[in-house]
TrEMBL record:
The keyword Transcription regulation does not apply. This is SMC family ATPase. It comes from Vreelandella glaciei. Pfam families: AAA_23, SbcC_Walker_B. The lineage of its organism: Bacteria, Pseudomonadati, Pseudomonadota, Gammaproteobacteria, Oceanospirillales. One of its GO terms (molecular function) is ATP hydrolysis activity.
Amino acid sequence: MTPLTLTMQAFGPFAGTETIDFTALGRSPLFLINGPTGAGKSSILDALCFALYGQTTGNEREPSQMRCDQANATLLTEVTLDFRLRGADYRVRRVPQQERPKARGEGTTTHNAEAQLWRLSADGEVENCLVARKVNDATAELQTLIGLDANQFRQVMVLPQGKFRELLIADSKKREEIFSQLFQTQIFQRIEERLRLQANQIEREVKEHRQHISGILDGGELESEAALEQEFEALTPQVEQARKDFETAQLQRRKAEKQRDDAQALQRQFEARDSLAAEKTRHLEQQGQVASIQDHLTQSEHAQALRPQRTALTQAQQALSTAHAEQQQADAALSSQRTSAEQAQRAFEAARERQAGLPELRERHRQLSEFIHKGQQLSELQARFQTAQAAWQQADGALKRDEAQLDTIRQQGEAAGVNLERLQTERQQLASAPVELNRFETLLTQRKELDVLTGQGRELTTQQQQATAALDQRRSESEQAERFATEQEMRWHQGQAALLALTLEDDAPCPVCGSLAHPTPAVNNADIVTKEQVENARAAQAQARQSFQGAERYHQQLAQQISYHSEQVQRLNQQLGEWASQPLNELQKTCDELHRQVARQTSVEREISQQITACDALRRERGALDKQLKAQRPAVEKAKEDALRLESQRDQLSQSLPDDARDPDAMRQTLTELEREVTQIEQAWESAQQALTNSQTQLARADEQLRGANERIERSEQSLQQARTEWQAALQASPFSDETAFQTAQLDDAQRQALTHQIEAYQRRLAELEGALQNYHTQLADKTAPDITALTTVTEIAQAEEHTQLEAWRKLDGRLTTLKGIRQKLATAHTAQAKLESQYQLWGTLSEVANGRTGHRISLQRFVLGVLLDDVLIQASERLVRMSRGRYQLVRREDPTKGNKASGLELDVADTYTGKNRSVATLSGGESFMAALSLALGLSDVVQAYAGGIQLDTLFIDEGFGSLDQDALDQAIAMLSELQMGGRMIGVISHVSELKEQMPIRIEVHASRHGSSVEVKGALH
């Protein structure tokens, strides 16, 4: 990336617009950026970095803080950079967020940050817009084009002042932090942390698995895995015998249950036969009711044959009634329509008379509208005349007031300028206060944290002592509970043997060994211990073991906390340095003093801003008054002419209006009433026409409906007479004596179906009962009733025996199943534990190596950085040898640092005059600068190489060359000249006078009370 043109406006110390044409410096120039301290030399590099990435080179100030205090309030802070990259030209423009005066009214408004990026053509014109406005989009696009982010750009193209001097004398830990940022090696640190966490996790899991195995045995009330195998082998044959005993008892129970179930089934057959016989007797009692229902159904069938004639008669009667009702309605409607038609005719005649007067009313409406329009024009002319007359009177008085005010503004501007200069001087004196305050506040926070950690350390030590005592007590209680539980279990076994010995008989086999002789049966010498007491003792043992394990975990946690606490205290002591032993109130006093300076700086900044705002306001007000005075007199003459012209127009229009038309409100009210009257007449005429037409239509329709109703009455009477004759003939031919007998015999379909179902259900149930009784008589002909009570007793005895054998088998089988599960869990746990221990051998070894716990105690990241540092030192030593005339080389210290201090990145300087290596801190000021510059250039080369082969065409060095003697200065310039001949543009920022003689091409930065300016000297024209 090669800069072509840089334009800075209201940026940093530059109050106006300053442009630097780098193309005028020549091809691959070596030039000097020269100027007094504070003039703004470094601000040029800030502008370059801000244009590309929206950040300054030191990244210590926000872009919004880069606005020039001396700039005009209306001038926008912005930076524009034209640059060339891989044969193409680009232009980027950035504007930071800032406050600017409002376009209208007083006060300020926030101007948001923006950025634009364009591709330029060969003649420097805009060819394509890559980013229109968004800041983030522009930054991302530029990072892609250049191949470097902001940090990498500052590392390899802009060497900020003092940074590499710090890198030269930094210790190994500080250099590790800087190099890890430069080479982005944080991934190796993350690998170290990941390996450490993985190893610690596996170690915790191994310990948990060991405790898990102990818990599995405790859950089965087993002392060891050997006891598990012994009990398992003894219990297996007992379970098999118990199963066989249960199966024998089960067969006996099934046999007894079958005999009982067969007897119960026979008993139910006898009971069912007796129940069916009783039900048949009850069923035969319903024969009389069934015969009555059959007669009723027969009469209903005869009535069903007469139903069509009766239905026809009913329908004819209903039709005649309906026709009479329709005739009455039609007659009433016809009378109502005749009355409505007469009313509509009278309304039509009245509306036609009012409609004849409409032309006269419309003419009156037109005249009123014309008078109202002229009245409005007259009011407007009167108002405009009054306004013009008032403006003419005010302008003459304002002229004299503005002249007096202009003199006052001149005096106030001179006083504000003197005060502003005094405040700016005080602001420069307080410029470093915020940085110092931030540093001392950090120290104060760390010191307070150190005091807190010291108190916590004492508390943790006390807690650890208490935890150690508690752990010893819990261990003793656990061992005592275990001995007591073992003793109780042994006493229980002895008691069980004594109880079994009491049941032994001569010549009878022993239930344990099967022997017929019993020479020394067991004797109980103490109280018999119950199974419950043994279980209670085991439970107390488990609880004591859990308490001991909890105390042990708590003791381990305290040890880890104390270790972490010690590391934190050591870290804070290193960070605080000498302040770690100083009284806290001394550090607090320093912070308070810096707070007062920062507060004063803020107050001064606010006063400067107020003074600048006041000066800008005075300048604007003075300019406005000058313009107003020049334009005021012609404006007065013009206002007078306008007033006289409007007065003449008003008088002419007033004479054309009659006297009764001068009240606009009255005229508008009359016009509104006239419009309402015309609308009413038109609507009434249309309504009357429509109503007359509708009434005539409705009258004709009503007359037609009445004639139709009369015709339907005649037809209905004829149909009724015919239906009555046919009904009488059918009734006489039927078995019914009169119509009442017919009505009584009628049944609907649902009633007939229900009665039919009753008869069928009676006959069907009677047949079922007779068939079932016949079947039971055949089955029970040669059988007698069983004894159910005796068979039930035998079954219950067999069931009790089966239950007893089942419980015995379940108890033994359950214990055997438990032991099998424990064996399986133990096998799984041992497999998992072996796998974890194998993993720990791998991950633990990797973690120790990566975190520097073996050998020279060098971590993975420090090892990688050491390799990179060797590459840097090779490049740096080549330059340092030349600059020091073969005396010095930079080398990495091989001997590890004593103690736990980080090592592996310490620098020494090899002195060929003495043949020994010594610390870089022993170099003089000039020698330190040569070493720092060599290290900076070497680091730039290596970072460039590791940045993917990015071609770096530009290098800016912001270092102090004043510490070099003439010979060393010549060597440094010669080295930079070689870099220039390699095709780089190199800019050196310095105020050393000797450099002016050796660098004819210069960018001079001039400082003044109104802001800095830039001048290019020795440029090509």
